[in-house]
Amino acid sequence: MNIIVCLKQVPDTTNVEIDEKTGSLKREGVESKINVCDLYALEAAFRIREKTGGTVTVLSMGPPQAKQAVREALMLGADDGYLVSDRHFAASDVLATSYALSQAVRIIGGFDLIVCGKQTTDGDTAQVGPALAEQLHLPHAAWITKVIDVESRGLILEQDLTDSILRIRLDCPCLITVEKDPATPRLPSYLRKLKFSEHPVKVLSLLDFQDKDPGRYGSDGSPTRVEKVFPPEENAEKLMLEGSPEDLADQVAAVLISRKFI
Prior knowledge:
Blueprint: E1 3-7, E2 9-11, E3 32-34, H1 36-52, E4 56-61, H2 67-76, E5 80-84, H3 94-108, E6 113-117, H4 128-136, E7 140-150, E8 154-160, E9 165-171, E10 174-178, H5 190-196, E11 202-204, H6 245-258
Parallel strand pairs: 1-4, 1-6, 4-5, 5-11, 6-10, 7-10
Antiparallel strand pairs: 2-3, 7-8, 8-9
Helix pairs in contact: 2-5, 3-4
């Protein structure tokens, strides 16, 4: 089974500055890593490949430095890697991102399955995977917690819908987004680190796509706009109360009443 895994490089910190004009994260000079949920997607793909044979190809979208995330995936066990990178793709929302990725998937071709992480730690929409499936007209399922079985023409999956667990079947080619549950991500081997630390990553730009209309990508192709992004206000005020349980209960009640919470 030939599998494409979509992954994203995200900031390795919670202290990231916001560009007030664009509403985008300032990624320059910030340490980055592979999005955590995407590591689980990668591991799920490796487990399927172990059962069926085939290949695992990594696909990412981001600035040139995101090549390192693709190389890290190669160190973990991926067979090939692509990076979608072009200034025309900057400030893409879910629609523009999924459309750019769909163009890249059509270039790669020959896949049976696309695996995505549930969501990213920076955008946190959990929408790119399903949107990509819609762009490619693929059957898809989100919130997959377990790949139960792999058949010649489909997958048997366990899907977590919060209030119920479903056992479903998807015909290939298809797309799934996985939760953190399926399998613990593996660590890179030392030999693969040596082999792939400087491995070339295939870079796709707007000129490589079938649809070269810049209005379909980046901020021009994004129907949603970020009005304002700001960190939450920090409140360092503390109130220490002492006394018996009965006294503490009275003191807490008095504080809540004084601040008109009750």
